[in-house]
Design goal:
globular, 2 helices, 43% strand, alpha+beta, three-stranded mixed sheet
């Protein structure tokens, strides 16, 4: 099973200038096939990630994770 979002909910932040806060519940396997850039919408200012249902992550999944979340941090997204 590949990684997928099983639930995502967005809410307006208490500070409008910060944009949307998004909670993402991930499930499955995080490997070389995962593309967080396609899975998670742009324009989010705060991102909460629940990995409770992630069954496995391999080294390429870790690489994809670091690449995505580093890019989000550089954009000023609060994780």
């Amino acid at each position: 099973m590949k990684c997928k979002i099983i639930e995502a909910s967005a809410s307006e932040s208490s500070a409008p200038k910060l944009g949307l806060a998004l909670q993402v519940d991930l499930a499955g396997v995080i490997d070389e096939t995962v593309d967080f850039f396609k899975m998670i919408p742009e324009g989010v200012r705060e991102l909460q990630v629940n990995c409770k249902e992630v069954s496995r992550i391999n080294s390429r999944g870790v690489r994809a994770w670091i690449k995505y979340f580093s890019a989000q941090r550089d954009r000023g997204v609060r994780i």
